[in-house]
Amino acid sequence: MEPDKNRTSLLWDYLDGNLSEKERLAVETLLRTDSSAQKEFDAILDMNVWLKETELEQPSMRFSKNVMEEVAKYSIAPTTKSYVNKKIIFSIAAFFILIISGTLIYMFTQIDYSAAPSGALSVELPKIEIDWKKWINSTYVQVFLMADIVFGLMLLDRYLSKKKKAGLQ
Fold first, then answer.
1. Distance (Å, rounded) from C-alpha 12 to C-alpha 45?
2. How far apart are CA 54 and CA 33, in angstroms?
3. In 61-169, where does DSSP find H-type helix?
4. Direct distance between the N- and C-terminal alpha carbons of the chain, in angstroms, rounded to an integer
5. Chain mean position to CA 90
6. Which end of the chain is more exposed for a tag (fewer CB within 10 A), N or C?
7. pLDDT by residue (tens digit) across 72-131?
């Protein structure tokens, strides 16, 4: 007998005829000399006979349909209309409207309307020196692009889910 196989699996293999000649002879010797192994083999033999004689129960022909009817009895929770609070959306929109309108008001107040001899308006904005190298470096650009990609994918997902939902109705 191989030491890595336990006795029960060896007895099952002996019963099924899956052992080599050397292992078969070793199991037969074990059964003749060890009474506990003989009792275990008798139990395995009885179980094997019972499994062969017993017919397995077949599910009814409507089994799948019965299961699906039981599942259909339970109500499915409706999907939420929105996962984002409307107040947050409105506050973000208000922020951008305020920034745009403030920029437009500032631009219109800086126009010199008296210095337009040929009908063209001239706008003189104050000179603001900004060190762009400090603010626009590879890290900020990469973060900005990654955020844009995430927002773009979210927008695409929303568009496709609305399109799919419209196609199903």
1. 9
2. 32
3. 63-73, 86-109, 132-135, 138-168
4. 68
5. 31
6. C
7. 888 776 666 666 778 888 999 999 999 999 999 988 888 776 765 565 566 677 777 777
Distance between CA 45 and CA 8 in Å, rounded?
Answer: 12
| Cβ-contact 42, 36 below 8 angstroms | no
At 142 the three-state DSSP class reads helix
Higher pLDDT, 30 or 3: 30
Concatenated DSSP letters of 34-64: -HHHHHHHHHHHHHHHHHHHSPPPPPPTTHH
For residue 127, give both structure tokens. Answer: 């000179």
Alpha carbons 162 and 156: distance in angstroms, whole number:
10
Tokens of 68: 């699906």
Tokens of 4: 């890595």
Q: CA dihedral defined by 145, 150, 154, 159, rounded to 10 degrees?
A: 40
Q: What is the pLDDT of residue 86?
A: 82
The model carries a pTM of 0.33
